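REQUEST FORM: STRUCTURE PREDICTION
Request ID: SP-0412
Submitted by: Lab K.M.
Chain count: 1
Length (residues): 228
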Amino acid sequence: MSVTQSTEMADVRDMYMAHTMFRREFALLPDLIRGVTPSDTRRAEVVGAHADLLCRVLHLHHEGEDRLLWPRLAERGGAEAAAIVPVMEKQHEVIEEANERVAALLPEFRVTGRGGAKLAEVFDRLLPALMEHMAMEEERILPLAEKHVTAAEWKQLGEHGLNEFAKKELPLTFGLMMYEGDPEVIKGVLAEAPLPARLLMPVIGPRIFASHARRVHGTATPPRTLKP
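STATUS: Completed
RESULT:
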């Protein structure tokens, strides 16, 4: 890659916004699951669908890093990247193994409400691994990305996986991140979106999240993230 003084480099603040959402929602998941009565299939579906969405977002988030971020940093980041990228890759493998275990347990839980204890235990094990990974990524990877990844390449990372979601899921997915997001960062993320999305998402995203949060958490304002 040829970088000139005029090349716009990555603005990584949207990654912090995504991480904040993951920290909040994955921390709340185990107790949500344990709170489901086995006979309450309606509640099991609500909580299970929420868990499924979070796991799919996390999977695609990490898949994008695997395909689009690690190779660029390994190529351009010298010794710093050589020391940390393999650690990131190994952490992704551990997290994905937990994600696969969730995928195996979730269908029965959603239909019957049974198996919640085992499912919650998987999320209990996933949480510290995820927290450690995100903290290390913020400390070691994002400074490298600011130096070695262009804004255009970073945009590709943000767009990765969008086609994997149904259109009706996108406002909720964005609303999950907007709940604690910096308004300036949100504006930047939407800057190149089609005009209808730029106009509507700041309005409908929070509304859809609030409605979703009331169903899942019992309140439109679930506990905010405990910063690392």
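NOTES: The chain has a mean pLDDT of 94.
Reviewed by: T.R.
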